[in-house]
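Annotated sample (chain length 115).
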Amino acid sequence: QVQIVEAGGGLVQPGGSLNLSCVASGFHFGTRTMAWYRQAPGDERDFVASVSLGGTVTNYEDSVEGRFTIARDNAKRTVYLQMTNLKLEDTAVYYCNTEPPYDTWGQGTQVTVSS
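Output written by the structure step:
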């Protein structure tokens, strides 16, 4: 079955950086577009960024364009999200999944941006 494990979150000051990672299994990883999503308290889960099968095509939600970078390593079944110049509004639980997502989600990793 699908299993997804996210890691790398934490508490950071505005302007800081974090690197998230996600290991996925239970499906043909190299044949699926992968994405990061986030859910802030009281909000729905929203798309953040996606990366194509080979890692060459990426897409970003407007508010993170230029600050976040998504990448993947198919051999390691891992997706990364490098986050720089973090803002208060980036505070959320971050999840990775396929795009479109499976019904199964990981536990997510909490990112808190606070001064």
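Annotation: The mean pLDDT is 97.
Annotation: The chain is about 0% helix and 50% strand.
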